[in-house]
């Protein structure tokens, strides 16, 4: 593809056409930003003064700021975990592609979140989109009433945005063109994630004002994981399966990943990074009890998810399945991300244990639908993101309110109680509404984005390129050059008969 582009650029008429197209895209983006700013400023202003975001404090809280920065570092380190997990569950001939996509997606997301992504998501505006802080201009000393230095808060939220885009790539491994990856990543990081995320996390997002109870998502089971999981589903559907992929209902089975060691280490790195993801979302080192509770709940849910997936899989194939156990503890982590502040340790164990089974059943459903998801991204992040969001309405124990810059607010009016703790169905109904709306909007917008990229002819590599392997075809070399000629970069397609019991653990999460 790059060579063809280089040859065409030698032609004068083609250079003129390329320059015109590039200029039109840049102009279109500038006009879009101007239109959003103008329309938002004219039509969408707060109806009442008390609806406006609170005035920030006059000082930066150093403890809360450093806690948030350290948490941002942990969340950012999850990119290494994602890259290793996806590379391990992929084949040798697409390893470089997985690694480079992770790196470039991160770089692209950072620039987009600086330019307008943060503004769309966290700027004041209306219930559907923000229009403040474009290019981080005119920012105050702290973000809102958090006491956290503004750029520290931006860094923390950038790491979250990067996670969403990386989730998407997992379901699209092995057949996505690199240019197509850049285009859909532009759409995800620049528009889909920040705009839909604004509904739940923006200072005036419409889900935060639901009555009688607002929608809650403490650290992102919906905002990060459900959005990422259902964009991943849209990508996998629009791409179609990898060449030679034969599904179980057709007498086949998933393609084996090439290195379960890398995948397992990547999964544990993600678990480690989750201690920034969840406890860091308190944004308050002064809420020490809350930070400790969130960290403990995160741990217990992951443990329960890994064990329940392991136990649930054993009767099915009579082996202790390592691959599904990895996805099981990740499922527990995804599920606890929403309710982690408001549930007890018992609730965390229950939520994680159910998530491990939900993950396995979701993998089965994706396989039955003949959707090729090499790493299980749709099941882990989409299916378990929904379960985690709904679980708050069941397991919120009625003891905890919300973190504040100076500690926890556990006043009577701020406590959350779920159905199992005598709180009625109000919280559950709010969670159902929020999860359903975000899921439907994300999948619809994701399908539109993916088919738009597909129309450019860049979403999927050619048949010859896929058979040759993305590493050689797209990037000019293999991650394992000594294996060239022995399957790592061979042009011969792999065989895909039903995997034996010996390979089941490596293939289970690839459904």
The CATH class turns out to be Mainly Alpha
**Order of SSEs, N→C?**
HHHHHHHHHHHHEEHHHH
Q: Kindly report how far apart the N and C termini lie.
A: 29 Å
Give the domain tally: 1
Largest pleated sheet: 2 strands, antiparallel
Report the C-alpha radius of gyration, rounded. 23 Å
Mean pLDDT: 88
CATH homologous superfamily identity? Ammonium transporter AmtB like domains
For this structure, the CATH topology is Ammonium transporter fold
Would you identify the regions where 5 or more consecutive residues have pLDDT less than 50? 38-52, 487-511
How do the strands and helices of this protein lay out in sequence?
Elements: H1 2-9, H2 12-43, H3 62-89, H4 95-122, H5 150-170, H6 178-201, H7 221-239, H8 260-277, H9 288-317, H10 322-336, H11 345-368, H12 377-395, E1 402-404, E2 407-409, H13 426-455, H14 463-468, H15 470-475, H16 504-507
Antiparallel strand pairs: 1-2
Mind explaining what this structure looks like?
The chain is mainly alpha-helical. The protein has a single domain, classed as Ammonium transporter fold. It is built from 16 helices and 2 strands. It has helices at about 1-10, 10-45, 60-90, 95-120, 150-170, 180-200, 220-240, 260-275, 290-315, 320-335, 345-370, 375-395, 425-455, 465-470, 470-475, 505, and strands at about 400-405, 405-410. Strands 1-2 form a two-stranded antiparallel sheet. A hairpin with a 2-residue loop joins strand 1 (about 400-405) and strand 2. Helix 6 packs antiparallel against helix 7, helix 6 (about 180-200) packs antiparallel against helix 13 and helix 7 (about 220-240) runs parallel beside helix 13 (about 425-455). The radius of gyration is 23 Å and the shape is globular. Mean pLDDT is about 90; it is low at about 40-50 and about 485-510.
